[in-house]
């Protein structure tokens, strides 16, 4: 690999804001927010709207998560 052209690959915490589920993994994403993890270290925090704990495919529930009104705009546009 060439030095200096790749983003830094580091440990980060992803948090599902709808279910408060958190997972520690590695990513190239960065964030100004940090969170203290179970091991006592602080890691960058990336907030996501959907994860395996809130996605209908994994939970078996059919709920619509629409934070920006896209479903309502679609229904208004294509209603007959």
Mean pLDDT: 82
Tertiary shape: elongated
Unreliable residue runs: none
Question: Biggest sheet, open or closed, and with what strands and sense?
Answer: 4 strands, mixed
Q: Oligomeric status of the shown chains?
A: single chain
Instruction: State the order of secondary-structure elements, H for helix, E for strand.
Output: EEEEHH
Number of helices: 2
Number of beta strands: 4
Major sheet strand order: 2-1-4-3
Number of domains: 1
**Proportion of residues in helical segments:** 10-25%
> What structural class results from the helix and strand content?
alpha+beta
If you compute it from the alpha carbons, what radius of gyration comes out, rounded to the nearest whole angstrom?
A: 17 Å
Ends distance: 56 Å
| Strand fraction | 25-35%
